[in-house]
Design brief:
Blueprint: E1 3-7, E2 10-12, E3 18-25, E4 34-39, E5 46-51, E6 57-59, E7 67-72, E8 77-82, E9 91-99, E10 102-105, E11 109-113
Parallel strand pairs: 2-11
Antiparallel strand pairs: 1-3, 3-8, 4-5, 4-9, 5-6, 7-8, 9-10, 9-11
Amino acid sequence: QVQLVESGGGLVQPGGTLRLSCAASGFTFRSYNMYWYRQAPGKERELVAQILSGGSTDYEDSVKGRFTISRDNTKNTVYLEMNDLKPEDTAVYYCSTIISLIPYWGQGTQVTVSA
């Protein structure tokens, strides 16, 4: 079955860096687009970054220039490198993919940016 397992979240000071990882299994990873979403308290889940199967990337405007999404198809893993973190980046971050029109989600990893 499809499994997505995020890791790498934590507490970081403003201006700091975190690298999130999402280990995927149960499907042919290299063939699918991968997404990072986040959900802050009291807000809707939003798409932060995406990487297509061919490697093209796109980002939500507020993270452009600060976040980088990448993938390692040999490790079935997608990453989100987050630099210059701001308090407004505080959220639960989720890895996601869509297979046969069905969305799959990981359990999420908490990122807290606070002094």
